[in-house]
Specification:
By secondary structure, the chain is of the alpha+beta class. It has one domain: Four Helix Bundle (Hemerythrin (Met), subunit A) (Up-down Bundle). It has a two-stranded antiparallel ribbon. The protein is globular and about 35 Å long.
């Protein structure tokens, strides 16, 4: 992962593509799973961007 200010980015998109192929899903779904979490409050559903550290924890959890 890398960062551009407060925004966390995936540095190697080829790995995202490989992971998407292994999981039989689109690359966009893999990126969203690694970089965002969904927060539901009442009727609103919000995608909140992970910090660099949160994205790293999510990556490690997905690898398990």
């Amino acid at each position: 992962f890398g960062s551009d200010g407060d925004v966390t980015l995936i540095e190697n998109s080829k790995l995202v593509s490989v992971l998407g192929d292994l999981l039989s899903t689109k690359d966009e779904n893999v990126e969203k799973a690694l970089l965002y979490r969904t927060v539901a409050t009442g009727r609103d559903v919000i995608d909140k961007q992970h910090t660099h550290q949160e994205a790293s924890y999510g990556r490690d959890a997905l690898a398990k």
